[in-house]
Amino acid sequence: MVSRSRLKSVLVGITLYAIASAAIAYFGINAYTGRYGLTAQQELDQEIIALTSELMRLKAERAEGEKRVALLRSDRLDPDMLDERVRYQLDFAHPADLVRMNPTR
């Protein structure tokens, strides 16, 4: 009887240590390879760099667009900008203009 209770207590102890080790291993592996783990952090950093550069490009593009729109406002209309937009919209070319055709694919 004494040996069975001792065997049972040893097996219970080993089982608890095995369960605890499995839980620690599970969380340790997820900390390294999980969605927000160490390897994912490097990928997120690269994505942040790429998105930051795209944001800077889009801000520059927007500033250029706002500058062009400001030139078309009625209170300070730029004649050159108006001429450029009219020619683009109407597909019009002055006889003295040099027109370069892009081949279509």
Explain this structure to me?
With 105 residues, this protein is mainly alpha-helical. It has one domain (14-90). It is built from 3 helices and no strands.
Keywords for this structure?
mainly alpha, rod-shaped, 105 residues
**Distance linking N and C termini:** 91 Å
The averaged pLDDT comes out at 85
Radius of gyration over C-alpha positions, nearest whole angstrom: 35 Å
Shape: rod-shaped
The residue ranges in which pLDDT falls below 50 over 5 or more consecutive positions are none
- What percent of the residues sit in helical stretches (DSSP H or I)? over 70%
Number of strands: 0
Q: What string gives the helices and strands in order?
A: HHH
Total discrete domains: 1
Major sheet description: none
Strand-helix topology:
Elements: H1 2-33, H2 38-71, H3 79-90
Short précis:
The protein is 74% helix and 0% strand.
